[in-house]
Amino acid sequence: MSERKTTRFAVLEAERVVKVHEREIPALKADEVLIKNGACNICTTDYGQYTGARKNLMFPMAWGHEFAGTIVDMGSDVKEFEVGEMVGIGYDNCGECEFCKKGLTSECVTLGAGRNKLSPDGYHGGFGCSEYVIKPYRSLFKLGNSETSCTAGRKNSCYWCRNDGCFECIGSESRRL
């Protein structure tokens, strides 16, 4: 495990107010990994909350949910990944509900209200704009060795089809809201 005990992260406190906060890195659960972030994409949803266009998202928002990084520690039940491996991060999901079984992990009913899910220390969001973050291994996908965190963060910009700048899917998402 990394000797790091705390992590800094970007928090959208209110419309157009972003500050850096710091918190302790929680202990890993058996099905979780600790990731050192390499890059985070600010998507249209994040930007919309920043500008005030998205009123359905709550504050304070530890924003960023499209990001990539390197695994630095893993829980005992994680077998599909290795320390030092670069990963992209998708939505937290249970893997068991009807939506997860269909691959619609952003709609997971077990883990609550997506980006509005509240962390134990009072933050909403995915903590993608942080130095270190803990995620369930089900939220990860492997990246090729030639992939950089920067390009991986951009590839993650459309969670429906994984295409960078996919306007068709962005339009589909806005129609669903």
Short description:
The protein has 177 residues and is α+β, with helices and mostly antiparallel strands. Helix content is 16%, strand content 27%. It has a five-stranded antiparallel β-sheet with strand order 6-3-4-5-7.
Structure description:
This protein is of the alpha+beta class and 177 residues long. 16% of the residues lie in helices and 27% in strands. It is built from four helices and seven strands; from the N terminus they run βββαββαββαα. The strands form two sheets. Strands 6-3-4-5-7 form a five-stranded antiparallel beta sheet. The protein has a two-stranded antiparallel sheet with strand order 1-2. Strand 1 and strand 2 form a beta hairpin.
Write the layout of secondary structure elements.
Layout lengths: L5 E9 L2 E8 L7 E10 L2 H8 L14 E9 L11 E4 L8 H4 L30 E5 L3 E3 L6 H7 L11 H10 L1
Q: How many alpha or pi helices? A: 4
Helix content: 10-25%
Radius of gyration: 15 Å
Please list the strands of the largest sheet in the order they lie side by side: 6-3-4-5-7
Q: What fraction of residues sit in β-strands?
A: 25-35%
- Give the oligomer, counting copies of the same chain as homo and different chains as hetero: single chain
How is the main sheet built?
5 strands, antiparallel
Q: What structural class do the secondary elements suggest?
A: alpha+beta
Q: What is the chain-wise order of helices and strands?
A: EEEHEEHEEHH
The tally of strands reads 7
Shape: globular
Low-confidence stretches: 153-177
